[in-house]
């Protein structure tokens, strides 16, 4: 009896699988028919994104960013007079799947253009497929240094800067201070994280060159929860500036410990923890956010071209949700690709790449331009918490306020 | 000198709280021979519930353990009777799989119900400190430590002074002999699991004030607790206390006189050395099957 039902089930499964594979084969064969670049046909952009798995959260945001861009450009008449169609597939956050996805998009679906996926891990593999097929690959995320040591010609990173240059805008602000307000001593605790540690290391080097004396430096592992000893050591050295490479809970943990040990530095900088708006302010207490600096690639209220439209359309499309930085980065990547295509006036991959190497593109993240390796030459935004709200204080053209809180008031 | 005393004080405070969190794990192992991988998830579950209660009613998070401990006692008892008891007598690996599954279910449910974001309860005193001369003692840590000491003391009294407690210890020392003198194996096991869960009820409430947490934080906590329990000797309550104090002091002193980067490593080095000299842990009893 049991055997019988099992065999019936497996027959059913087999026939289902057969039907599915025929269906899939049919799907796969259709787009390849349109090889001719007929102006009536839509311009197809192939994208693979981590819509499930580890990176599903940022992956889904990136998808939304791309979709908002496609809606806008189609409403405005399309790209080169053709409607844009996004062909988005899911790579399940898997490096092998992302390679086969992009290979299939290029060789079988014969998409006209590509846009990048999410995270350095996935873009590292995906960009190699694009490079081999000589197709322009603009990625919204993927700033790991080894992305740009491979001599790729078709790779472009659509964020203002890679990790080692993320804090440049903060160093510039320190340089701009009158001599008596510049910090004399600094402490640099950082999490051992590929996107936190390089920011702090580079900042420390630049500030030491400016004559800021380092009184404390330490790297801690990702699972550290107990920050009292670190806070205690820093409090004993009384640095003017504390700059922490903070992912999130470590940023909250250190601020709390500093408050408990009653030490408040004149200037406080944290890499990404303060950009998680509500979660950060509820973790440290709204009063204590006052004056804390951080850097970020995008801000909702930044006065960059088209940013307001992006935010409005995103909210309208997605139930009034606030767009995440990841969605804005994806939108900017699409803007970069579109600028190249429009300037060249044709889908000519080599010419688009050449044009992007030679020109600056205006995006919602601000102006972007690239080294020959695809590494961006720009700067991040300098954010600061003021009266319970995250503001942009530099650079001037993107600032949401002219006011800078300095020195930081005591913790509240 | 002040710095040393300060580091020592912080280490002892945090060690006491670690001890409470680890006590449930070691109690459950002692009686049931089950490594409850879900103990970390219990902590996060309680912390989330405490946070919610604090937000909704303003009830002090550490006091909330008066509510969370009985709730977790009940949950532990139900879980034992309907889930855990079904794998009694099977290989230890089964219990690891089952409780790990339980941890994943709790994490998943928290993700869906409460969302994947960081939380932490911030009552008025969470960032204040008591000052003793040059030494600063964070209030949240002090209250958490006092609650932990009270619960551990209570647990000790129950285990040594009551018939039920003696039954639990007897079952932990020799299950067959305990059964021979009339101790019900299932009832005692359910009680031990429920008590172990209840200690996570208090531990989780304290955690909600001391550290930001999110559904997947339980991995960090269970690895820390397992380290403590292995160092102290699986199943030994004084062992858990001792292991927890060593971890708290190792973390704080290494971070003060060396670097925070080394603090985890130092703790595991201590574990390795202890296990080389005493494979059963500091207070662990050597079982006959270990010697064979």
From TrEMBL, chain A:
<comment type="similarity">
    <text>Belongs to the leucine-binding protein family.</text>
</comment>
<protein>
    <submittedName>
        <fullName>Amino acid ABC transporter substrate-binding protein</fullName>
    </submittedName>
</protein>
<dbReference type="InterPro" id="IPR000709">
    <property type="entry name" value="Leu_Ile_Val-bd"/>
</dbReference>
<dbReference type="Pfam" id="PF13458">
    <property type="entry name" value="Peripla_BP_6"/>
</dbReference>
<keyword id="KW-0732">Signal</keyword>
<dbReference type="InterPro" id="IPR028081">
    <property type="entry name" value="Leu-bd"/>
</dbReference>
<dbReference type="InterPro" id="IPR051010">
    <property type="entry name" value="BCAA_transport"/>
</dbReference>
<feature type="signal peptide">
    <location>
        <begin position="1"/>
        <end position="25"/>
    </location>
</feature>
<keyword id="KW-0029">Amino-acid transport</keyword>
<feature type="domain" description="Leucine-binding protein">
    <location>
        <begin position="43"/>
        <end position="388"/>
    </location>
</feature>
<dbReference type="InterPro" id="IPR006311">
    <property type="entry name" value="TAT_signal"/>
</dbReference>
<dbReference type="InterPro" id="IPR028082">
    <property type="entry name" value="Peripla_BP_I"/>
</dbReference>
<keyword id="KW-0813">Transport</keyword>
Automatic annotation (TrEMBL), chain B:
<feature type="transmembrane region" description="Helical">
    <location>
        <begin position="180"/>
        <end position="213"/>
    </location>
</feature>
<dbReference type="InterPro" id="IPR001851">
    <property type="entry name" value="ABC_transp_permease"/>
</dbReference>
<keyword id="KW-0472">Membrane</keyword>
<keyword id="KW-1133">Transmembrane helix</keyword>
<feature type="transmembrane region" description="Helical">
    <location>
        <begin position="259"/>
        <end position="277"/>
    </location>
</feature>
<keyword id="KW-0812">Transmembrane</keyword>
<keyword id="KW-0813">Transport</keyword>
<feature type="transmembrane region" description="Helical">
    <location>
        <begin position="7"/>
        <end position="31"/>
    </location>
</feature>
<feature type="transmembrane region" description="Helical">
    <location>
        <begin position="61"/>
        <end position="80"/>
    </location>
</feature>
<feature type="transmembrane region" description="Helical">
    <location>
        <begin position="225"/>
        <end position="247"/>
    </location>
</feature>
<protein>
    <submittedName>
        <fullName>Branched-chain amino acid ABC transporter permease</fullName>
    </submittedName>
</protein>
<feature type="transmembrane region" description="Helical">
    <location>
        <begin position="140"/>
        <end position="160"/>
    </location>
</feature>
<feature type="transmembrane region" description="Helical">
    <location>
        <begin position="37"/>
        <end position="54"/>
    </location>
</feature>
<dbReference type="Pfam" id="PF02653">
    <property type="entry name" value="BPD_transp_2"/>
</dbReference>
<feature type="transmembrane region" description="Helical">
    <location>
        <begin position="92"/>
        <end position="113"/>
    </location>
</feature>
<dbReference type="InterPro" id="IPR052157">
    <property type="entry name" value="BCAA_transport_permease"/>
</dbReference>
<keyword id="KW-0029">Amino-acid transport</keyword>
<comment type="similarity">
    <text>Belongs to the binding-protein-dependent transport system permease family. LivHM subfamily.</text>
</comment>
<keyword id="KW-1003">Cell membrane</keyword>
């Amino acid at each position: 009896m049991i055997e019988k039902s099992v065999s019936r089930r497996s027959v059913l499964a087999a026939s289902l699988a057969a039907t599915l594979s025929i269906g899939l084969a049919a799907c796969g064969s259709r787009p390849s028919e349109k090889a001719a670049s007929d102006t009536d046909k839509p311009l197809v952009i192939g994208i693979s994104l981590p819509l499930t798995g580890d990176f599903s959260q940022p992956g889904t945001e990136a998808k939304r960013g791309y979709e908002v861009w496609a809606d806008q450009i189609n409403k405005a008449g399309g790209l080169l007079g053709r409607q844009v169609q996004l062909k988005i597939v899911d790579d399940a956050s898997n490096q092998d799947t992302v390679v086969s996805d992009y290979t299939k998009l290029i060789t079988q679906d014969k998409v006209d253009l590509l846009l990048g996926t999410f995270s350095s891990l996935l873009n590292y593999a995906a960009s190699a497929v694009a490079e081999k097929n000589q197709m322009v690959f603009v990625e919204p995320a993927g700033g790991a240094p080894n992305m740009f040591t491979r001599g790729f010609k078709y790779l472009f990173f659509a964020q203002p800067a890679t990790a080692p240059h993320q804090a440049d805008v903060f160093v510039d602000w320190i340089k701009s201070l009158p001599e008596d307000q510049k910090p004399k001593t600094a402490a640099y605790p950082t999490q051992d994280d590929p996107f936190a540690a390089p920011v702090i290391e580079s900042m420390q080097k630049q500030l030491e060159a400016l004559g800021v004396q380092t009184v404390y430096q330490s790297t801690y592992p990702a699972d550290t929860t107990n920050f009292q000893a670190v806070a205690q050591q820093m409090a004993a050295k009384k640095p003017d500036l504390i700059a922490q490479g903070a992912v999130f809970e470590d940023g909250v943990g250190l601020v709390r410990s500093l408050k408990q040990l009653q030490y408040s530095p004149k200037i406080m900088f944290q890499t990404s923890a303060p950009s998680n708006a509500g979660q950060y302010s509820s973790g440290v207490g709204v009063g204590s956010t006052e004056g804390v600096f951080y850097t970020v690639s995008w801000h909702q209220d930044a006065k960059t071209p088209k940013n307001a439209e992006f935010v409005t359309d995103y909210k309208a499309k997605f139930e009034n949700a606030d767009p995440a930085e990841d969605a804005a980065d994806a939108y900017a990547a699409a803007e970069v690709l579109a600028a190249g295509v429009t300037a060249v006036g044709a889908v000519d991959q080599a010419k688009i790449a050449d044009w992007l190497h030679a020109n600056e593109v205006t995006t919602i993240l601000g102006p972007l331009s690239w080294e020959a390796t695809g590494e961006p030459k720009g700067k991040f935004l300098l954010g600061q918490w003021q009266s319970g709200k995250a503001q942009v204080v530099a650079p001037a053209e993107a600032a949401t306020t002219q006011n800078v809180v300095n020195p930081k008031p005591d913790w509240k | 000198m002040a710095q040393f005393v300060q580091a020592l004080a912080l280490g002892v405070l945090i060690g006491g709280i670690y001890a409470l969190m680890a006590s449930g794990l070691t109690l459950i192992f002692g009686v049931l021979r089950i490594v409850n991988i879900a103990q970390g998830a219990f902590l996060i579950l309680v912390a989330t519930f405490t946070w919610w209660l604090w937000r909704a009613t303003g009830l002090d998070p550490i006091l909330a353990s008066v509510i969370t401990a009985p709730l977790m006692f009940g949950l532990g008892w139900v879980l034992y009777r309907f889930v855990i008891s079904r794998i009694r007598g099977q290989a230890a690996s089964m219990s690891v799989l089952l409780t790990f599954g339980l941890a994943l279910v709790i994490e998943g449910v928290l993700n869906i119900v409460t969302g994947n974001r960081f939380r932490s309860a911030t009552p008025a005193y969470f960032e204040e400190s008591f000052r003793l001369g040059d030494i600063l003692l964070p209030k949240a840590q002090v209250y958490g430590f006092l609650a932990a000491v009270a619960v551990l003391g209570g647990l000790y009294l129950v285990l040594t002074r009551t018939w039920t407690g003696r039954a639990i210890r007897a079952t932990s020392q020799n299950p067959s002999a305990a059964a021979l003198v009339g101790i019900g194996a299932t009832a005692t096991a359910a009680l031990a699991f429920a008590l172990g869960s209840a200690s996570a009820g208090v531990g989780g409430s304290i955690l909600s004030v001391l550290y930001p947490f999110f559904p997947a934080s339980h991995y960090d906590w269970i690895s820390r607790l397992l380290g403590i329990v292995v160092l102290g000797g699986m199943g030994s309550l004084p062992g858990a206390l001792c292991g927890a104090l060593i971890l708290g002091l190792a973390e704080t002193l290494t971070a003060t006189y060396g670097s925070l980067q080394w603090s985890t490593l130092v703790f595991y080095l201590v574990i390795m050395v202890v296990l080389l000299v005493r494979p059963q842990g500091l207070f662990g009893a050597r079982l006959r099957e270990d010697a064979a």
